[in-house]
Amino acid sequence: MNHHVSTEYSVGGIESRRCSLCESEMVLVRVTPARVGFNLQAFECVRCNHVDKVIAGADPLQSDVLGWLLGELRPPN
């Protein structure tokens, strides 16, 4: 089984994904805590069993993750 950890961050719900190797549909197979405010989502390809892992906000509606990811901090004027 091939594994790939993505540097993508997701702030919304679970999105459908396509395999980076064969372009087939991927399904969410596991969600585990990564660090405070974030989860690691594992997606597996239905055709070739390739696994992609994506770090996502644990609960974007109830965490401060959205503020950081959407640019709460601004450069000084």
Task: Considering the chains and any ligands shown, give keywords for the structure.
five-stranded mixed β-sheet, 1 helix, 47% strand
Biggest sheet descriptor: 5 strands, mixed
Structural class: mainly beta
Taken as a percent bin, the fraction of beta residues is: over 45%
What's the multimeric state? single chain
List SSEs in N-to-C order.
EEEEEH
Strand order within the widest beta sheet? 1-5-4-3-2
How large is the radius of gyration? 14 Å
What is the arithmetic mean of pLDDT? 75
Number of separate strands: 5
Number of helical runs? 1
**What form results from the Cα inertia axes?**
elongated
Taking pLDDT < 50 over at least 5 consecutive residues as the criterion, the unreliable ranges are none
How many domains is the backbone divided into?
1
What this model shows, in words?
This protein has 77 residues and is mainly beta. The chain has one domain (3-69). Helices cover 6% and strands 47% of the residues. It contains one helix and five strands. The chain has one helix spanning 65-69; strands at residues 3-10, 17-18, 25-35, 38-45, 51-57. Strands 1-5-4-3-2 form a five-stranded mixed sheet. A hairpin with a 2-residue loop joins β3 (25-35) and β4 (38-45). The longest helix has 5 residues, at 65-69. The protein starts with a strand and ends in an 8-residue tail after the last helix. The model has no long low-confidence stretch (mean pLDDT 75).
